[in-house]
Amino acid sequence: MTDVVRTVAALRAALAPRRHAGAAVGLVPTMGALHAGHAALIGRAVAECGVAVVSIFVNPLQFGADEDFDAYPRDLDTDVALLDRLGVDLAFTPADFAPRSVSVRAGALGEVLEGASRPGHFDGVATIVTKLLNAVGPDRAYFGDKDYQQLTIVRRLVEDLAIPTRIVACSTVREPDGLALSSRNANLTAGEREAAGALSAALREAAATWGGDAGEARAALRRTLEAAPGVRLDYAEVADPETLAPLEGVVEGPAQALVAAYVGRTRLIDTIRLEPHLAATAPDED
Ligand code: AMP
């Protein structure tokens, strides 16, 4: 049975004996409305750790004033039933977890891409992730590749603040047409759901045609998504996978393509790795 705890004191009391018995602790932070993407992270945590903790908290700090905090899907009973089936030991579902006044700043990595469109978003993420890592003290914490900028910032966060947790990245789980699973997909109408397939299709196309020219790939991505019916593009970028700085010209190493768009009122993001172009790493001929 998944034990549901709502306070840090109860969480620590439940974890202490298992930790003292030598179990590695795994944490999967979520905002609930769980889907198969979450389940993939949770399955890994259960398989790899002696104790698996899943937090469910819709973090108000990462939503802007005009964003969808109120409309964000919530279904705690269904979520806890799923956690039970997945063999999760502890669900941490705090009613209020936002710090009263202290916060963590994500820094420069948080100011580009999603951060440029959603000012303060990653400070909110960084603050709550730091507090969760402090509350749980996990050996490993699992994050999805889909939220690539978030993953990059969390890796930087644990390094910069010397938090002794290994960050484990998990690949994106997709619908058969390629749409990345997201809790927000629940808010799409049938027509919007069809239109939303354009994001992953454009990214797949970018990866398939990637020849190492970042400017060309960026322009093609933008062209495709600006022409996609029912899609209002926010950004499409080809960036350095570590610094997230936009790449220019022909690059030899890997690149990361990242897109954000509105489909109806729903904001969706997706990303794909563009692997080094073969011609740039051609083997020696002799
Ligand atoms: P969220 O509840 O949206 O905050 O997501 C919680 C965690 O699940 C984050 O680390 C996400 O990156 C990850 N996640 C969300 N969607 C997917 C997906 N489709 N595949 C894999 N991981 C995902």
* Total helical elements: 8
- Kindly report how far apart the N and C termini lie: 63 Å
Fraction of residues in H or I helices: 25-40%
* Strand runs, count: 9
Strand order of the largest sheet: 1-4-3-2-5-6
Oligomeric state: single chain
* Average pLDDT over all residues: 96
Q: Order of helices and strands, N to C?
A: EHEHEHEHHEHEHHEEE
- Could you name the ranges where pLDDT drops below 50 across 5 or more consecutive residues? none
Structural class comes to alpha/beta
- What is the overall shape? globular
- Measured by DSSP, the beta-strand proportion falls in 15-25%
Bound compounds, each kind once, are: adenosine monophosphate
Q: Using only CA atoms, what is the Rg?
A: 20 Å
Largest sheet: 6 strands, parallel
Plain-language structure description:
36% of the residues lie in helices and 19% in strands. With 286 residues, it is of the alpha/beta class. Bound molecules: adenosine monophosphate (AMP). The site of adenosine monophosphate has 17 residues, from helix 2 and strand 5. Adenosine monophosphate binds next to helix 2 and strand 5.
Notable traits:
286 residues, alpha/beta, 6-stranded parallel sheet, 3-stranded antiparallel sheet, 9 strands, 19% strand, binds adenosine monophosphate
